[in-house]
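Hi F.,

I've been meaning to write this up properly since the lab meeting, where we talked about keeping a consistent format for the predictions we share between groups. The idea is simple: the sequence comes first, exactly as it goes in, then the structure tokens exactly as they come out, then a line or two of notes. No screenshots and no reformatting. I'm using this chain as the first example so we have something concrete to point to.
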Amino acid sequence: MCGIDAARRLPMGILDIAEEAAGAFAADKALEAVDPNAGFLAKSVAAVAGFEGVSKVKEYMDQGDAPAADAEAPADPQSDT
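Output, unedited:
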């Protein structure tokens, strides 16, 4: 077995931790680029947003082309009901 595949099957694999840490780091560095004098609270919020953002992007990427089961059906403009 490949080590990457084995890590993906763990509930919280090392790759997941690395991806989320990279997201937090990238968000912190982006904030520093926009506001070099950002305080601790702003940097903390940016890190959490980057951390959570990675998981949301991964969820979206894992869905692939499968339609969402809870997606609302488009309304028919010709329907009288």
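Notes:
The radius of gyration is 19 Å.
The chain has a mean pLDDT of 78.

If this format works for you, I'll send the rest the same way.

G.
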